[in-house]
Each structure stands twice: as structure tokens, then as C-alpha cells.
Specification:
Elements (H helix, E strand, L loop, with lengths): L12 H4 L8 E5 L5 E5 L3 H70 L1
Antiparallel strand pairs: 1-2
């Protein structure tokens, strides 16, 4: 019986990297006319969000693969446990047979004497 794990391959760092972008700021005016600095969503921000989303998805995929492998391992261990119980029962059976044979041989020797 061979345990087979699912394969998981993560993409290379190059596939996950975005180009470097500079942050841009823009001065905006609120409804009362006061100016405030507000950072606009730039390509760098969306790149960071993309990287975070990709990391999340990769982690989800890895978690799914790990759970699948744990279930396979659990099934394998249950099958092994069942086989061990069968071997234990067989061992007990043959021990009883050996004891019976030993007893028969002893009685036959007693009868010969």
C-alpha cells in the first residue's frame, strides 16, 4: 500500500512581483473648503492588493492541499491499523495452535512411556 500525496507548486517570486511604482499624493478640498492631503490609489497600491490577494489564494490552495494530504494520511493509518489488528489476531490464532500441538506432543510422549 503506497501513500500518495497531492503535489502543490507555488509560483515563482517573479510571477508574484509587480513593477515598482511611485506613490502619488493629491491635494483635495473637502466640503468646507479645507484642503487635505489624500493618497490616491495608485498602481503600487493595486499591486500590493494584487500581491495580497495572490498570497491569500495561494495560502488557500496550500491549505486545501494540506487538508487533502492529512485525510489521505488518516485513511492510510486507519488501513494500517486494521492490518495490524488482523496480524495480531492471526498471531494469537497460531500461538493457540502451537500450544495445542505442544500439548498433543506431550500427551503422545506420555502414552509412549
Amino acid at each position: 500500500m503506497k501513500l500518495k500525496y497531492s503535489n502543490f507548486s507555488a509560483p515563482s517570486q517573479k510571477q508574484l512581483r509587480c513593477s515598482n511604482y511611485s506613490m502619488s499624493q493629491k491635494c483635495v478640498t473637502d466640503s468646507e473648503g479645507l484642503s487635505q492631503d489624500s493618497i490616491l490609489m495608485t498602481d503600487s497600491d493595486s499591486c500590493s492588493m494584487f500581491e495580497a490577494q495572490e498570497t491569500y489564494l495561494l495560502n488557500q490552495q496550500l491549505l486545501h492541499t494540506l487538508i487533502k494530504n492529512i485525510k489521505l494520511k488518516d485513511k492510510f493509518l486507519q488501513e494500517c491499523s486494521h492490518k495490524v489488528k488482523q496480524l495480531d489476531n492471526l498471531s494469537i490464532h497460531y500461538q493457540k495452535k502451537l500450544i495445542q500441538l505442544g500439548g498433543n506432543i506431550y500427551h503422545q510422549k506420555q502414552q509412549i512411556k
